[in-house]
Write a structure and sequence with these properties.
By secondary structure, this protein is an all-beta fold. It is 2% helix and 60% strand. The protein has one domain. Strand 1 and strand 2 form a beta hairpin.
């Protein structure tokens, strides 16, 4: 069995070797073609509980159609020393994916390569997006960002329709653990019109902790080679978080990149498809996700009471989930 520290320092690797059940792990590949006409999320994973199996979920962000392709556990394979996962005849790595799905309700063949990806930085003190929480072995759910933004090359054929993805943009993240949280907001976009390569990834959730729970959040804005982090573990604060209808307004402050900063996010939900999410007993959580949301982002550096704008932009084709909003989730600090 691999030492615990090797998996902590490699969040992209499969973490399920020797894991105590219940356990799940899933990788999230977001695929947007160069025109924005074709928008997909491809999610391979494994679920180990009363009903162990592997799966590939497919979300068409344009039509809201979602498919759950189930596979026997014997058709799941993962490398022990790198990120490489096979589900049935499909293969997934940080640099490519190939799909061979021949199910009754959907047939997909794809050969896609990724270029220029940058993961969330990993260090001993802060191994990825989880920060020092990654070293805590009893967290309900762990998170990783494998690529903020990359170029896609290749084609995908779904039910006979051929789609070219060359010069499209992609994003990769993952989750693993025992269960998704009881309530959360998740937002991601790397389609800022005048700032290619910039990526926003943001999440806030209710986190079980020993015999209580707390609200935890992690927000990262990757821009021009710098990562502006606002997280519970960095001491950042939520000045405002409001969810009204299809609108979300979130304002954070904290010290990042050597100075005090303020980040304001205004997001609008798009049309949603329904994905399956893990609980401790099954993949029965109904997770509504949009790939057509929008996000207006403004990052400012605070200097002597004044705001100096570092970045301002409108993100398209945003992934957005708002699940079971609870009063504690919206508290300000």
């Amino acid at each position: 069995m691999r030492p615990f520290w090797t998996t902590v320092l490699n969040p992209d690797w499969y973490h399920g070797f020797g894991a105590k059940r219940p356990f799940f792990e899933g990788w999230y590949f977001k695929l947007i073609d160069s025109t924005g006409q074709h928008k997909y999320a491809i999610i391979p994973g494994v679920f180990l509980s009363d009903d162990p199996h592997a799966f590939i979920q497919v979300l068409n962000g344009s039509t809201k159609e979602a498919f759950y392709h189930r596979y026997p556990l014997e058709q799941f394979w993962a490398a022990e020393d790198r990120f490489e996962v096979h589900v049935g005849g499909s293969r997934f790595t940080q640099h490519a994916l190939s799909l061979l799905i021949h199910q009754q309700d959907q047939k997909i063949e794809a050969d896609l390569q990724f270029g220029g990806g940058q993961p969330w930085p990993v260090s001993v003190a802060s191994p990825g997006i989880m920060g020092w929480y990654a070293w805590v072995p009893t967290m309900e759910c762990y998170h990783g960002v494998l690529s903020f933004d990359h170029t896609i090359y290749g084609t995908m054929t779904i039910d006979g329709a051929v789609m070219g993805f060359t010069n499209g943009r992609g994003y990769i993240e993952k989750d693993w653990g025992q269960s998704f949280p009881s309530a959360w907001i998740w937002l991601q976009t790397n389609h800022f019109e005048h700032s290619p390569g910039t990526c926003l990834t943001a999440s806030i959730a209710m986190i079980p902790w020993q015999f209580t729970r707390f609200r935890g959040f992690i927000v990262g804005l990757w821009h021009e080679g710098a990562l502006y982090r606002f997280a519970t573990y960095t001491g950042a604060k939520t000045e405002l978080l409001v969810v009204e209808g299809n609108q979300i307004h979130w304002v954070l402050t904290g010290k990042t990149e050597g100075a005090q900063h303020r980040l304001e996010i205004r997001a609008s939900r798009g049309e949603e498809g329904i994905l399956a999410g893990p609980s401790r007993v099954d993949m029965g959580k109904r997770v509504a996700e949009s790939l057509t949301a929008t996000a207006t982002v403004r990052l400012s550096r605070l200097e002597r009471g004044q705001e100096v704008v570092v970045f301002e932009g409108n993100g398209r084709y945003a992934g957005l989930e708002v699940h079971n909003i609870e009063e504690e989730l919206l508290m300000t600090e």
